[in-house]
């Protein structure tokens, strides 16, 4: 009998994941908000679940929610696409007897489907995961059929950290410096763009003087993801962003 995949959480990550994989495998969607569920995919509801794709927001009960979703759909394996705190994959794997893969998502929400195909989809799985080779093969085949390149990292915590430390938080640091340099420009009554033009040629040749737009960091990636790390150092991003907001308000 043919199997299906299930995407749990049909928000800004789950919806494009659903659109991506549904072209190559029978796929059903699930969300606590039933209005988000496209009924055209429910014709596969009766099929046995092969892979359960987790795309729900992270919370203190994330692991509990994943375990409950596993009980509900009885999948052969689970793929976590959500941004999660370091150590979460290992924690969930210790609670379940099926393989758990963590596969961080990269891209801009408004063009996420395009970015899913543009960027390599990194993934990782614990060494002691049951049916590990089956899960790796199943996921790589699914992504290949969906037109997505994959790359496996040595262990999930490396990828969990990579998503937060070298993706969203690093982006936040870069914007922070733009904010700080703009505050200096404002204080000294100089033009921000003119000041930064001094680095144009350096960045052209060396690529290590990126000029960012000095805007306020909003949205629900950079700042919320800081809470997953519990790092006083990285929390400076929040503090600088908050101070900058006060400057913008005054202006």
Condensed summary:
The chain is an alpha/beta fold. It has helices spanning 14-21, 62-73, 88-93, 112-118, 132-145, 156-187, 192-196, 200-206, 222-226, 236-250; strands at residues 4-8, 27-30, 49-54, 77-80, 100-102, 121-125, 150-152. It has a seven-stranded mixed sheet with strand order 2-1-3-4-5-6-7, with helices on both faces.
Question: Which CATH-level-2 architecture of the largest domain?
Answer: 3-Layer(aba) Sandwich
Helical segment count: 10
How far the N terminus sits from the C terminus, by CA atoms, comes to: 65 Å
- Secondary structure: helix percent: 40-55%
Given this structure, which CATH class of the largest domain is correct? Alpha Beta
Element-level helix/strand string: EHEEHEHEHEHEHHHHH
Structural class: alpha/beta
Regions with little confidence, pLDDT below 50 for 5+ residues:
none
Beta-strand proportion: 5-15%
What overall form do the CA principal axes indicate? Answer: elongated
Radius of gyration: 21 Å
Number of strands: 7
CATH level 3 topology of the largest domain:
Rossmann fold
């Amino acid at each position: 009998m043919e199997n299906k995949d299930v995407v749990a959480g049909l928000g800004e990550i789950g919806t494009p994941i659903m659109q991506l994989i549904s072209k190559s495998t029978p796929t059903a969607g699930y969300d606590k908000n039933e209005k988000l569920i496209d009924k055209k995919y429910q014709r596969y509801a009766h099929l046995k679940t092969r892979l359960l794709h987790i795309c729900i927001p992270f919370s203190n009960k994330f692991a509990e929610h994943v375990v409950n979703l596993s009980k509900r759909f009885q999948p052969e394996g689970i793929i976590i696409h959500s941004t999660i705190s370091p150590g979460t994959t290992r924690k969930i794997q210790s609670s379940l007897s099926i393989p758990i893969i963590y596969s961080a998502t990269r891209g801009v929400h408004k063009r996420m489907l395009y970015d899913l195909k543009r960027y390599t989809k990194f993934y990782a799985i614990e060494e002691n995961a049951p049916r590990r080779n089956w899960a790796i093969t199943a996921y790589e085949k699914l992504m290949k059929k969906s037109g997505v390149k994959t790359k496996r990292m040595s262990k999930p915590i490396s990828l969990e950290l990579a998503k937060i430390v070298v993706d969203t938080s690093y982006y936040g640091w870069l914007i922070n410096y733009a904010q700080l340099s703009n505050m200096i420009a404002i204080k000294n009554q100089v033009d921000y763009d003119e000041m930064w033009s001094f680095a144009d040629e350096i960045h052209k040749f060396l690529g290590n003087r990126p000029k960012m737009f000095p805007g306020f960091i909003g949205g629900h990636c950079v700042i919320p993801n800081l809470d997953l790390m519990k790092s006083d150092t990285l929390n400076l991003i929040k503090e600088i962003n908050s101070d900058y907001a006060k400057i913008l308000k005054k202006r």
